[in-house]
Amino acid sequence: MPRTTARTAHLRAAGVSFVVELSSPLPRILHWGADLGDLTDEDADALTLTADGAVLNSALDLPRQCTVWPTEADGWSGTPAHQGHRGGTATTPRVRLTGAEERPGELVLRLADEVSELDITLTYRLDPSGVLGVVTELTRPVAGPGQDRAPYDLTGVTALLPVPHRADEVLDFTGKWCREASPQRGGLRFGSHVREVRRGRPGADSPYLLTLGVPGFGFRTGEVWGLHVGWSGNQRWVAERLPEGAGVHGAVLGGGELLAPGEIRLAPGDRYTSPVCHFVWSDAGLDGLADRFHNLLRGRPAHPATPRPLTLNTWEAVYFDHRIDRLLELADLAAETGVERLVLDDGWFAGRRDDTAGLGDWTVDPAVWPQGLTPLVERVHGHGMQFGLWVEPEMVNPDSDMAREHPDWLLAPSQGLGPSWRHQYVVNLAHQDAWDYLLKSLDEIVTRYAVDYLKWDHNRELHEAVARGADGADRPGVHAQVEAVYRLIDALKGRHPGLEIESCASGGARVDLGILARTDRVWASDCNDPVERQAIQRWTGQLLPPELVGTHVGGPHSHTSGRVTAESFRYLTALFGHAGIEDDLTARTPQERAGLKRWAALYKELRPLLHSGRVVRADLTDDATLLHGVVADDASHAVYCWVRTATSTKAQSGRVQLPGLPTRGGYRVRVRTEAGLPALHQTSGPAWFTAALDGWVPLPGSVLGGAGLPLPTLEPGQALLIEVTALR
Ligand code: GLA
Question: CB of 269 within 8 A of CB of 140?
Fold first, then answer.
C-alpha cells in the first residue's frame, strides 16, 4: 500500500479510541469505538489508507467522507454540521482546517469558513471514563474594512459522529408526568430518526440517551453507541442512516441545541457555544454505557462527596397545609426515624395557599408563618438534620405581586399571554432586573434560614418564549433563558458554598448533564409507586449513578397511581438511590415507624456501596421480573434486588446469573430482612434461600455469576434483597 503523509490524532481512554485524520481541507473521523492500542505510524497509515469506500454508480465521483464538519461542500446529503445564512445568502459553507492542537485527552480543531464568515473551534475531550465530550464554538470575527456586517443567522449546529453498519437497532426514551424515562426500541431504518425537544426543558419525554447497537444488544452484552445532549433547553437529536452510508461508516449519531429562527444572530465579534454532546461507546451492553457515564459523573470535582443524607420531603405528607404544630411533629418523628435532611416543600411563601397564587413572591407568608420559618428550622437543625426548602424561581403566578408589579418580566409575546400551565407562566431570567431580584430573594432566604438544600422546581414548559428587545420587537428567548438559569444557580452556589440543589421539574422533566453540572441530584419522578419506580429508576440510572437520583418511600396508597403496595417493596425500591421518605409519619403506626427506622439504618449501612459501586442489570426473558444490583469495583461486595412486578406464566425463574460477579472465587450470600420479606408465590425453597434467611451461606462465584442461582418465585409487587460478599 502507498504511504500517506497525513497526520492522525488518537485519543485513548478506558478501552475507547477516537482517531481523526488531520487531513486538508477537513479532518475526517477514522474511528470511534474499541481501543485500537498504540498506533504505530504504519498502523495509522493503514487506517487512513482503508478509510475510503467504493465510488458508487450514479454518485459522487470521489469516495464519500465523514469529515469532522460534514456539509454539502464535501457531497454530504445528511444533517450538516452547521446551517445558517446572512440575509438569505452565505448558505453553502466551505469549512477548512486552520489548526489542530492535541493535548492529553483532548483534540482541538480550528476551522474557518470564509462563506459564512465564521471561525470554528471544535473540541473533542475524551474523559478518563471513555465518554467523548464534543463542544463547538462559532465566532464571527470582528469585521474588517469592506466586510459584510449583517448578522449571520445560525439555524443549527450538530455534533456528528459516525457508527458502523452493525449499529442496527435504536433505543431512546419517552415518557410523561409520573412515567419518565420510558424506553422505546426498534430497528434503525433508512432516513433520519430525529427527536426534537421544543418544550424549553428536556421534558418528561426526553430522548435522554439516544443509543444505537448491534441487533439484540442488552444490559450485559452487545456493542452500543450512545449520545446524551447536556442541555436544559430545546434540543435536536438524530440517528441518521442514508443508503450511501457515512463514508465507510454506516450511519451517524448527532445532537445539539434546537435553535428557533433568529434565536442566534452572530454579528461581527459574537460567539455561540454549543452544549456538550456526550458520546459513549461500549462493547458491554447498556450496563457498559451506564458504567462510563457513572464514572464520568463520579470523576467530577463537584460530585457530591458526603454521604447522601436520608431525606424527608413534606409534599405528600402535608401538601399546602403548613400548620407549624403538624410540621414540628413531623420533624420530631423524622429525626426519631433516622432522617438526616428535612425538606419543606411548596406552600411556605407569600400567598401560596394552593397552586394558583404566590409564585414569584419569595418571602415567607406571615399569615401562615407568623414567626417566619425559624421555629421549624430551629427544630430541624436542633435535631442535627439539614434543612431544605422548595423553590421554583423561573416561574410566576399571575396572582402574585411579582406579576402585578413587573408584567414586563414575563417571557411572553407582546400579543399577550398564551394558555397557563398549572396556573403559571415563565419569568424572563434574561431580564437583568428579574434575575437580580431572584438572586437577591434566594440569597436572603438561604442566608436567613441557613438553608442547606434547595429543591429547585420547574413545573411548566416554555411556549411562545419570546422576550422584548430594546427595539420593542419579540425575539426567541429559550437559549438565553437556559444560560440565565445556569448563571443564577452558579451565582447562588458561589455565595453559598456547600448549598446543595435538586433539579426537579414536575418530577424528572429536567434531567440532563447541563443542569447536573450545577446541581446535586434529580427528582426522578413524582411517582413513588414502587412498580412504576422500578422502571423509572432503572432507566434514569442509564445516565445517572444512584447517588444522584432521589428515591423516596411513599405511603401504602400511591398518591399518583392509586396503587396499594407492600411496605417492603416500597423500602427496597427506594433503597437504590439517594433515599428518602415522602409520607406523613404522623399517620403511621409505631410498628410502621419502627420498620422505617430499620430500613433507614440499612440505607445508612449500605450507602457507601450503593453510591460507589457499579450498577448491574440482568437480561431476563421474563418481563415481569427484574434483577438489578450494585457491585463494588473489586467485586468484593454486592447487593441485588430481585423484583416481581406482575405475575407471569413462567412458574420458575430457574438459575439466574448474578450480574457483575466473577465466575471464580469464593463468596457468601445472605438475605437482608431488615426491610421486611416478600410474600412468596410458592410453598418453600429454594434450599439456599431458606438457609440464607438465617445468615451467610457460602456459594462460589462459579454458581453465583456462572451457572446461576435459582431464585424464589415472588408474589407480584414484591422484592427481595440479597447481599453477597467475597470470602477472603
Ligand atoms: C412539583 C414537584 C413535586 C412538588 C410540587 C409542589 O409537582 O414535582 O414534587 O414539589 O411540584 O408544588
Answer: yes
Q: Is 168 a catalytic residue?
A: no
Pick from 267, 265, 231: nearest CA to 133:
231
**Cα(519)–Cα(451) distance, integer angstroms:** 15
Beta partners for 644? 625, 718
Tell me which of 2.60.40.1180, 3.40.1390.30, 3.10.180.10, 1.10.3720.10 is the CATH number of domain 615-726: 2.60.40.1180
AA identity, residue 610:
L
Whose CA is closest to atom 9 on ligand 1?
Answer: 526
Q: How many CA atoms lie within 13 A of 88 on its CB side?
A: 0
Helix (H, G, I), strand (E, B) or coil at 472: coil
Q: Which atom of ligand 1 is nearest to the CA of 504?
A: 8
Q: Whose CA is closest to atom 3 on ligand 1? A: 506
Please give the average per-residue pLDDT across 115-119, as a whole number.
95
- CA 349 / ligand 1 centre spacing (Å): 14
| Contact by Cβ (8 Å): 130, 280 | yes
Indicate the pLDDT class of residue 5, thresholds 50, 70 and 90: low
pLDDT digits (tens, 9 = 90+) for 587-639: 999 999 999 999 999 999 999 999 999 999 999 999 999 999 999 999 999 99
Q: What are phi and psi of 723, to 5 degrees?
A: -115, 140
Using the mean position of ligand 1's atoms as its centre, give its distance from the Cα of residue 196 in Å. 26
The pLDDT of residue 620: 98
- The residues of the chain that CATH labels 2.70.98.60 are 4-51+63-298
Q: Which of 291, 365, 526, 529 is catalytic?
A: 526
In this structure, the residues whose C-beta lies within 6 A of any atom of ligand 1 are 315, 345-346, 355, 390, 457, 459, 504, 506-507, 523, 526
For residue 526, the CA-to-ligand 1 centroid distance in Å is 7
505: pLDDT strictly greater than 70: yes
SS3 helix, strand, coil % of the chain, rounded to 5?
A: 20, 35, 45
Distance (angstroms) between ligand 1 centre and the Cα of 459 equals 8
Write down the H helix ranges in 231-337: 285-298, 315-318, 324-337
Which residue, by CA, sits nearest to atom 8 of ligand 1? 506
If one residue of 346, 352, 392, 558 were mutated to test the ligand 1 pocket, choosing by the most ligand atoms within 8 A of its CB, it would be: 346
Q: How far is the CA of 477 from the centre of ligand 1 (A)?
A: 25
Which of 318, 344, 349, 504 has the most ligand 1 atoms within 8 A of CB, as the residue to mutate? Answer: 504
Tell me whether residue 457 is one of the annotated catalytic residues: yes
**Span(s) in the chain for CATH 2.60.40.1180:** 615-726
- pLDDT class of 469 with cuts at 50, 70, 90: confident
Looking at domain 4-51+63-298, which of 3.40.50.300, 2.40.160.20, 2.70.98.60, 3.40.50.720 is its CATH number? 2.70.98.60
Identify residue 357 by its one-letter amino acid code. A
Of these residues, 457, 512, 520, 583, which one is catalytic?
457
Q: Which three cell numbers stand for residue 451?
A: 438553608
Q: Is pTM, for the whole model, over 0.85?
A: yes
Question: What gap in Å lies between CA 363 and CA 528, rounded to an integer?
Answer: 30
* Atom 2 (ligand 1) nearest CA: 506
Element (H, E) at 425: strand 425-426
pLDDT at position 544: 98
| Ligand 1 mutation pick, 506, 510, 581, max ligand atoms within 8 A of CB | 506
Instruction: Name the burial class of residue 88, with classes exposed (0-12), middle (13-18) and buried (19+) by CB atoms within 10 angstroms of its CB.
Output: exposed
DSSP state of 706: I
Distance CA 656, CA 703 (A): 9
